[in-house]
Amino acid sequence: MSEDGVRCLWMRGGTSKGAYFLAGDLPSDEAARDDLLLRIMGSPDPRQIDGIGGADPLTSKVAVLSASTRDDADVDYLFLQVFVDQALVSGAQGCGNILAGVGPAAIERGLVAVAGEETDVRIHMVNTGEIALAKIQTPGGKVSYAGSTEIAGVPGAHASVPLTFMNIAGSMCGQLLPTGNAVDVIDGVEATLIDNGMPCIVMRASDFGLTGDESREDLEGNAALKEKVEAIRLKAGPMMNLGDVKEASVPKMFLVSAPKNGGAISTRSFIPHRVHASVGVFAAITVATATRIDGSPAAALAVQPADGRYQVEHPTGMMEVFVDMGDDGTVKGAGNVRTARKLFDGLVFPR
Ligand code: NQM
Q1: Contact, 250 vs 307, CB < 8 A?
Q2: Which residues does UniProt assign to the signal peptide (predicted)?
Q3: ipTM over 0.90
Q4: Pocket probe mutation, ligand 1, options 59, 93, 216, max atoms within 8 Å of Cβ
């Protein structure tokens, strides 16, 4: 490692963008690593003008890759959220969008060998301890990013990256419903506190005087709304076994409404302070799961698909996620299709 230049792959993963590093190219000491990542991204600064971050939480993300420490995985993936305007780096959440780039990046960096036209990459998601399976297109012995799969929020078509997950219920909160309740009332608002891969709080948009169709800009410009949502988040953190979440990027806050475009449920999400331009992968899986919890606000608003494939509506289209639940309410599996693209490979120079 040299601070003159740190080896870095800059990739789009789903609807996010991030810097992918080999763990060996970063300091092993966490504080030194986080300090370096802040300087690489240009944080704290709302414009991240002196770094490579895109001045948005969705483009200020990091994946740290290493050979897997587990027999049931090929690569270890640690996700780190680099806050834009605070000197904070958090590993207290995973990220299913950045996950889409992990298989390609692991192959590009020689951590995983190509195995035919399509290569299975088993990814140990270090943040939650769970395993994801990614199928990567590898014709002719190398990663192909070209293909015909379109995802909402990304222009054009690319190679599909199917992702499947097992055992993600309670990923960070210990249980699917950490309070044991379908509904908790916080500050007078009915909320489902739930974690099927991402700690989320799911509430009716109408309980905030909203239709649920508002734009990202409108919601971010509504200071009173943001204050109310944040007050609920801070109270819910300890209830979800997450402790004090003042400086954490979870739980994510969802305002849901009835679907408007033929999907299963309509969403707007605070992640947790900015509003998502689309929706997170594990977050969408978690909200889809909330629609299956009897008596929850989401269940009453949702239109259930017949085949477990949920079209989760969001500000820039829909994301399809798959949720397989047993009759007893246990989650058997979940999945999603993303795309990813290598944007840049080289050395990044921290300030
Ligand atoms: O929920 C943003 C993203 C995410 C998270 C965020 C994600 C997920 O879209 O799996 O992908 O919620 O901070 O990158």
Answers
A1: no
A2: none
A3: yes
A4: 93
